[in-house]
Amino acid sequence: METSRRTVLAAAAAAGLTAAAPATAHASTGGEPVQEPFGTLTDGTKVHRWTLENGGTRLKVLSYGGIVQSLEIPDRHGRYANVSLGFGDLDAYVSSSPFFGALIGRYGNRIAGGRFTLDGTEHRLSVNDGPNSLHGGAEGFDKRVWDVRPFSGRTGVGLVLRYVSADGEMGYPGTLKVTVTYTLTPRGDWRIDYAATTDRATVVNLTNHTYYNLAGEGRGDVLGHELRLAASRYTPTDATLIPTGELARVAGTPFDFRRGRAIGEDIRAAHPQLVLAKGYDHNWVLDKGLTARPQPFATLRDPGSGRTMTIATTEPGVQFYSGNFLDGSLAGPSGRTYRQGDGLCLETQHFPDSPNRPAFPSTVLRPGDTYRSTTVHGFSAR
């Protein structure tokens, strides 16, 4: 059931956040999703792009990786821009993408040493990030072609994406059946609903890896963006960006975004954690915790364009990544290259390395249970 706008606004007020009002420029009541070809993989598999439009928001999604190829919203003057980083062709996504816009699974973020033990059995995973497994391994959900079914109705227009991950894929146990629903609501919110079931005990942590630049894709860095996070703690990491297990207080550190401030204000501070990650690439422990319904926790605003995004989620954490490893070697559809800090990610999630950290919220899924997670992005301009 769609989270009501009134519920999100009330929860945002209670959390001290500013919920995004619906965009008004060129608002639409939505129409049927539009499908078009987007290329062919080397094995002959056809990839399609779907375009959704509703409530003043436009979203373009690929069947390859469930990738958000474009997210268009208006600024304070009603001028549209794509605010997500990505590519203009399929080949670049296949060969070069740092997870631009992708669905991430089976396990978002890092698992130490590419291994974990569940019910007394050790499982060895695909290692693709130094000694660790990152975002499901070398061929995670971001590199799979999803079955896509469009829909439109009273609650919005959208896509239902399905994928079956075989037992043992990338080292994970159990056959996992995954359904992810992208919905654009009549108010222009972008809602993501995740669901999964398994026939054998496994671990699951699904998320979306869109890189945002609210000034517009290819229009410089995001260091002037103002970010507010309702999180009093974060999880410090070791040199390979694996959590140490500590839940550290943000007070008095560059990790304190509770009152909202520019991302670049302290990003070059000589804090050991910023030095390790070359910026922000950490999990924040949300004050709201794990919730049954999406609760607001973040507001991101670009002062230049006035574009604002508010995010609500059921998840207990968020990985804030400030685009530290963008090095100018990749170019977007604008024809401009992406350099360090030209986009940021806010990946709603359970904590990194939870399968090896019993004190963290559990990511174990067992037969008969259903994994569920929801994240809602609201947009406005002022």
Explained architecture:
Mean pLDDT is 93; it is low at 1-28. The strands form 8 sheets. This protein has a 9-stranded antiparallel sheet, covered by helices on one side. Strands 1-2-3-4-5 form a 5-stranded antiparallel sheet, with no helix packed on it. A 5-stranded antiparallel sheet has the order 19-18-21-24-27, with no helix packed on it. It has one domain (5-381): Distorted Sandwich (Beta-galactosidase, Chain A, domain 5), CATH 2.70.98. 6% of the residues lie in helices and 37% in strands. Strand 4 and strand 5 (80-82) form a beta hairpin. The chain has helices spanning 5-15, 90-96, 272-277; strands spanning 34-40, 46-54, 57-62, 68-74, 80-82, 103-104, 110-111, 115-118, 121-124, 133-134, 147-153, 156-165, 176-184, 190-198, 202-203, 207-208, 226-229, 233-235, 248-249, 261-262, 281-285, 295-301, 307-313, 317-321, 330-331, 337-338, 345-349, 364-365, 371-381.
